[in-house]
Amino acid sequence: MEIDDLKTIFADAWFIRAFEDCVAALSDAGKIPGLVHLSHGSEVADVMLRRHLQPAIDKITGSHRSHSLALIGNIDPIALAAEVMGLSGGTGNGLGGTQHIVSKDTLFLSSNGIVGAQVPIALGAALSARRLENSGIAVAVFGEGASNQGGVFESFNMATALHLPILFLMQNNQMAQSTHVKDVAVVNLTARARSFGMVAEQVDGADIVSLENTFERLIQYIRETSSPVFVEVSVPRLGGHYHGDQSCDGQSKVDPLVNLQKLLQAQDMHDEEIQTIIDDAKARAKNAVDEAQKQRDQSGESLKRYINDHPQLMGNL
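RE: above sequence
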């Protein structure tokens, strides 16, 4: 991989890290309602995925931990920060918040706070792409904690039965909230996905070369065959289940961003240039959050307007 590609990947991944550090600070300051779940550890894998997607025809769905996916999915950082804070100008005018980010006109379609619910939703995007015959694909990103959900199994089966162009991307950080995967899954998760009749592979989320080769090869396969594929990406969970959670899973953690920085140094990139990239990412992230905070908290007003425009909702309450 060329040094310029590595620099771009490093800059994009560091922007995600810096953005979420700003989100964490906002949470500490009481400016975000509810809990926030950070993507620390998956940024590099997410950026590598993005290199092989086409925003005009592809769609991504994610879980409650989707800030990184939203950013690689072309959502404006200011709009994302506003949504997380529940402010106007957010992707859902502040009504969805950090766990329910919706942006139907971008590469990132939606996130979902219900464990595993984003997987069957992605089937709809995959079916649309197949019927449009535009070589588009859907990417359902979920954790190993969602792998035992019935809806996920049903999605595997339906995708293979209907030959849907979808990438089932499981990010395995070993911990489902506070439960280790070995305590709830006695079989190899990739082998289990393979039993549904689809191609299924594993890749190290800290290995740039393996990520590049795996995503390039398998996404091209999906486009050419309109067939589902399962990929298990091992990623570290560098913090607790949510920001502020002090629990520790006792595993040794290798930060993929640190690995990537070492790779750049091995390519004779000077520390000063690396630090400039990091500083620029931090400045851009801070600027996005600062701009978002200028928006007004009118989520309550937006909700009232929505209910007034959809009176049938009141009958379901």
